[in-house]
Predict the 3D structure of the following.
Amino acid sequence: MAESERRQYGRIEVEAYPEYAIAAFSAECLRRPTTTPKELEELLGNAIAERAREGYGRLSTPILTSTSDEALIALFGQLGFTPRCCGFVFECDLVRARQVEVRAQPLLPAGIEARDLGGLPSDAVSDAFAQCFPGEDAQATVGLLLGSGSFLPWASSCATAGDRVVAFTMVSARTSAEAYLWYQGTVPEWRRRGVGRYLVRRTIEALHKRGFTWLVADQVTAGNDGEIRLLTTCGFRHVADQVRLSRNLGQK
């Protein structure tokens, strides 16, 4: 993991990564309708000038959503920030997904069993997570999610081959009606065999039985055609893009 250092510029905190000559900042303080291009330029002015003097080549926004952050994306565009699509938001109407038969529920391959994720030791889940998401800190991420008060162990599922976890879904509650699909993954040797789709459909069933009506996935990476196909097959639909905007610090 690259080392970073943070610096405050008024309402904006910028996190810089010297190894990559990139500076990034949080846009939470800017998410309000009264922010104007002039105000935004003033807020960013010192950060741009100082980081440029220090040799940073680019200033980036966090990931923004094309629907809820439309005005903010437009503001950055007026200041010369260039958008790049880095992911998508999908959502599933759980009532409709059960009423409309998208495809027949697949059967699990021989030797694979499905069960609730709750009650499994975090190390068993972390091993599978590390294979599915090699760029993340598996133990920290899994431990944080399993220990969260909003985590839904009865809606999160896993598939096991003997004592080994080979696929999983990790779900938490956003509201009493909406759940959030943090992660779904299948270890490489068990992909394209219907295991992931079986678990997502199992999660949908569990949520519907408890009165949830929506399941949202907003960490769907652009170019991950397998995950997009899986979610679409299970009744999800694409509702928004996720974009990151950046500006060359030498740009006037």
Remarks:
- The helical segments are 37-53, 70-78, 94-99, 122-132, 138-146, 195-209, 225-233.
